[in-house]
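Progress report, Aim 2. The chain analyzed during this reporting quarter is listed below.
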Amino acid sequence: MSIAALQKDFERLAKKQRTARCSRNEKLDSLLQELERAKEEIEAQDEIMDEDGTKGDAQDGAAGSVQAVVEQLESSVKAANIGETLAAENKELCYLITKFGKAVDRQMPPDLERAIKPVPIDSKLLNQVIVEHFLRSGRIDLAKHLATEAEVDLPEEKVAPYAALVSILDAIKSRELGQAREWAAQYAGPLAHRNSPLPFRLARMHFLQLVEGGKVEEAIAFARASFPKFAAQHLLEVQKLMGTLVYAKRLPGSPYETLFEPEAWESVGRLFRRESCEVLGLAHDLPLAVSVHAGVRALPSLLKFATVMHAKMGDWHAAGREHEPSGGGGAGAGVPLPLRLRVPCVARAGVQGKPAHDDAVRARAV
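Predicted structure tokens for the chain:
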């Protein structure tokens, strides 16, 4: 529901409230008129009794008249059914107000603190995670500065692989493939073992770059030297690349125009990041970013759970701590996540209570 829809609902609710108020005032005015009429008649009977003195017949007649007035008033009030009518109208109005309040609450930012369980965090560990996040995101200088300020151990051999990858990725963004091809040649064995498409994609982009630059003879020489080893797996694509030579001087509007779009360079950059991280044993997604994305994905379910528990138990965090076993930890609530956000948990012990093997408990962010 949008804010405009809320505005319309508010206008309808305000109109309903005004209508209910007018109806209520009319009914109360009618009741007051009946009471005033009955009051006047009773006062008139009192005057008659005062004039007649203590005559018994007169007093009996006046008392009978007063009784008749009261009975008529009671009959009129019952016939008007004002009490039940006002109660029904008020109930309907209260329901609409409550419904509108819930609609407004749904548009307001939720109280996220209700779904967040306070967890003690080791500041040193947190600083280390942030430093590694800066390393992975290419902000090497910032990572080194933070490591110095936070007294986090950051040896140069740990920085070097990230710095090299950042340099190569920056070169690819500038459409310079020299460093990337040298890296692929250096790790040709692991890439071949993974059956990685990276070497061919780099050769493909270099060939297209030569064709686009009008260097047809260089492109042919490069193709003869580089493409034969890729022919077994990429024959159709190699043949397609050879077709670009026919249109080398008129690429715009040619059947091969899409091969030269800027998105191809972005795709190569993403492929290099993924393959290089796999070869070097690094997570190609930033671990801190994965944690944030997983938390955001799970937050709606946790917030709904916390809201229900808060309504039933008050402070559900405190209630959860009271029911935790002596060993601590408590029972977690499982929230399904996509495969790319799932990381195997590090087991404390095997199924039979024996220490788990290292190979079984190693985990790496996808």
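The chain has a mean pLDDT of 78. Residues 133 and 288 are 6 Å apart (CA to CA). These observations will guide the mutagenesis work planned for the next reporting period.
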